[in-house]
Amino acid sequence: MDDGKREAGLKRLASALLEGGSIESDWLSAFHAVPRDAFLPDRIWPGVADGTRQSRVVDRSVDPEAWFEAAYSDIPLTTQWDEGRHTGDDVGTTPTSSNSLPTMVFTMLKDLGVQPGHQVMEIGTGTGWTAGLLSYTVGQNNVTTIEYDPEVAHDAARNLLALGVRPTLLVGDGRRGYPRPRPYDRVIATCSVGSLPYAWVEQTAPGGVIVAPWGPTYGGEAIVRLVVRESGVASGHFTRSSAFMRLRQQRAERPGIDAYLRGERWPAGADMSRSSLSPADVGGWVEQFVIGVLMPDTFWRTERYDDGSYTLWTYSLDTESWASADFEPGATTFEVAQSGPRRLWDETESAFRWWEEQGRPGFERFGLSVSREGERVWLDGAGHVVTAVSASE
Questions:
Q1: Nearest to residue 393, comparing CAs of 118, 173, 180, 186?
Q2: How far is CA 82 from CA 47, 86, 159, in A?
Q3: pLDDT(5) > 80
Q4: Catalytic (active site) residue 61
Q5: Is 238 within 8 Å of 367 (Cβ atoms)?
Q6: Closest CA to 167 of 111, 199, 129, 204
Q7: Contact status, residue 105 vs residue 124, Cβ threshold 8 Å
Q8: From the candidates 22, 97, 100, 242, which is the catalytic residue?
Q9: How far is CA 217 from CA 81, 121, 244, 340, in A?
Q10: pLDDT band, residue 381 (cuts 50/70/90)
Q11: Tens digits of residue pLDDT in 297-319
């Protein structure tokens, strides 16, 4: 790649990140010394900054200009689909490795607050870019990074070595962390979790910080910044919304509709009613987060129609309960069907109304506490528990 183009791309992206407040000046030297393009494969799928959509592949050998433009844009770049099984040019089914949105990388590093000499553990090496940035800042001997996928780990190691960077890179189950004689001062996850493994807390020194994307199975996700106490409890606020790939061992199986209707045609004997709550009102990221926290072990899908209407389906993971709510443009009430021991649309309404009663709080008013006994999500202070979540892994 032309050095002038690389330098221009670096400066352009650095300026955008500085202007947006995502990167601080003390990270600029690392940003230039560990260039993003050095951690990208020839085939990448550009995403968008404010969502989870990706476009068709951009191949460096076919269109180097477009590839370079994507590399130095503030967008996420998918580098692997379906655990490597997908090889086509279109998007695959599930993105399974990426180079994260630069804004998110540097705001998470800001939350982490690393200093030279800190011992740092990263969960989810991916392309190796964050491990490289951390190695430059705290020293490569102080960085341990764990990747589950051997092929992804191999590529990351190659990327790092090409720049002469050699952190401790391990292939394994990131939930277990990697104990070292000296506890970590900082832990960062670059994959999302729905249950923060307590091993990460155990391996962090008192006063140390854990930064991770956290979200319920239903949807909605945000970065949480936890401080580990002498008591062994880690607690802290959420700082901003996020949209990361899930830790592979925590990806929930989402059965298809046949597992719920069991061969019958909708409404399959379900209880019918009408609701004043529009399905469109519960689709926001914060709304999904709140509903998911208050409705554990559930997920949703939509079935869209040509006239702009759609059905919002809500399911329980155990396949025992489901609900459908039909959205029609301009309607003021919406047809609802519910089946099973859980009244899932009633639960959805209850969660949404609770959120409204609290003043429609954003992520920053919520927090998380993690102990050996499990997790608790709270609002406006750890004394105001929203719900206790299942025991941390």
A1: 173
A2: 16, 6, 22
A3: no
A4: no
A5: yes
A6: 129
A7: no
A8: 100
A9: 20, 25, 13, 19
A10: confident
A11: 999 999 999 999 999 999 999 99
